[in-house]
Amino acid sequence: MMKKISIEEELEILKSNVVEIIPEDGLYEKLKKAREEGRPLRVKLGADPSAPDLHLGHAVVLRKLKQFQDLGHQVVFIIGDFTARIGDPSGRSETRKPLTPEQVKKNALTYQEQVGKILDVSKAEIRYQEEWFGKMKLEDVLVLTSKYTIARMLERDDFAQRFKEQKPIFIHEIMYPLLQAYDSVAIKADIELGGTDQKFNLIVGREIQREYGLEPQVAMLMPILEGLDGKQKMSKSLGNYIGLTEPPNQMYGKVMSIPDELIIRYFELATELPKEEIRKIEQEMREGKLNPRDAKARLAREIVKIYHGEEASLKAEEEFNRIFRNKELPENVPEVEISEPKIWIVKLLTQVGAAKSNSEAKRLISQGAVEIDGTRIEDINLDISIDKPFILRVGKHFFRRIKRA
Length: 405
Description:
46% of the residues lie in helices and 14% in strands.
């Protein structure tokens, strides 16, 4: 049963932080019709399991989906096990490398658990594209492709730019928006959520639904959350992300590393604080009554609390302060034994897991991110003696106690 509130109150909740609704009055009309018919709206969000981890950028849209769920609507989370094999061309200047079915399946297995950190999965529909695309015949595919023109597809900004620059656009990439659109046909979506970079795909969904005799869905576009660098959108491939399943200490530390100018935006898009409270924090920072570092600490607590609970958020703050404010070591520093009497610093970083490759290890050293017992290491050719134990620190959060085996 839906909560007994007016449509106007429901609209106010659902429109918060939304960048655009297409058509503008569509959400009101859908809510009104659903009440007249005595049924919940079917609200769709799709995610391609192109990486094993969901992050706070995904959570912006997932939290909007949760608002629909809390209001009694039926949320449908689609795991794009077919579209992930293509790769969403949105905003891409070149073709994505396709994932294998094995990679997709491995990543998809983690998604339901991660989504459960925000949604009540017992009440949600978790669907895989395999349900409908796995049964499609070539004839069905040809019917789908007949519903949209190449000219319309080339209106899309990234395709248009690549066409202009004579860069390849492959047929399978053109299929991506059609497959995402057909998801809306398959589950009979009333609403589809997505980031602003998904606008073209969501509009195609409306048109394809109409072609299959369904009432077009309403597209609701959410803002894109910037990553830790404060410049590009949060992305695992860019390394500027905060994963939903990251340990509390790591999550807290990453939030503390964001630029000050992102504090309020993160409060708005990544926490559950009321707008009035956020405006108060913003005003106090502007007037110099609140230090940005203290505001950021509050932000880090709020975010960790959502995904790990209040006790874990307080412990993460204590640990952060012990390391960075009091210049102490973490409580439990993992110990690694090295068999050689001496080891190349680059090899040491890869061997203990601080870097995935020699080139990454060299980059970390050149950036001044590597310390041994508090002394910065700047020479990538340095051999380290293991005659006595020492503390290796890489970046802000990686500590290892190194000793001879």
